[in-house]
Amino acid sequence: QVTLWLKKIYGNQPIPQYEVNARTVDILYNLVECNEARDRDVSLLIEDMKQKATEYEAEANYLKGLLTESLDLSLASLSSEGTNYLDVLVDSAMILETKDTSLTSFFCAINDMTSELYATESENREMELESKSIRKKLTAALKLEKQLEEDLKKTEELLEVEKAKADRQTQNLKFLRRKFEDLKISIKAAE
């Protein structure tokens, strides 16, 4: 199945070499499934758009018939302003993806879009709060890192001072031992 999909993707071009193992085959298989699901979704969307176009066309024909029969008006007899209004109405219905051009459909579509807008704004606020929280944590972590670096530097300096003291004390101790040995030898010589 993966090989067929790769041939479909690359067509007449050679398929690039890849390491055939369980992991790469799993990854490619997941890509195949995602691609097929996307293709199914696209075909459903195309069918839906065709159906909506048919419905819009039927609605337009119905309205045209209504204008022609009931009011004895034709699109040719409408003023340019009237035609513009109808075009705006049709464009609005297409943009809002309404079922028809009734006022109820427009209100429903506007309410849906308003709900989506509020949901998006709410998500944006949540993401902004989360972003602020992350920035505060990052700032605190950077301050802590800087403080730790300063503490480490001070500790290293103190260690150097203590090492120097320890070296002096070691030298003094060696000196005192030599003196002690010299005095001991002198005392024995004196006895």
Automatic annotation (TrEMBL):
InterPro entries: HAUS1. It is found in: Cytoplasm, Cytoskeleton, Spindle. One of its GO terms (biological process) is cell division. Residues 110-186 form a coiled coil. Pfam families: HAUS1. GO terms for cellular component: cytosol; HAUS complex; microtubule; spindle. Keywords: Cell cycle, Cell division, Coiled coil, Cytoplasm, Cytoskeleton, Microtubule, Mitosis. The keyword Oxidoreductase does not apply. Its main location: cytoplasm. The keyword Protein biosynthesis does not apply. Belongs to the HAUS1 family. PANTHER family: HAUS AUGMIN-LIKE COMPLEX SUBUNIT 1. This is HAUS1 protein. It comes from Steatornis caripensis. The lineage of its organism: Eukaryota, Metazoa, Chordata, Craniata, Vertebrata.
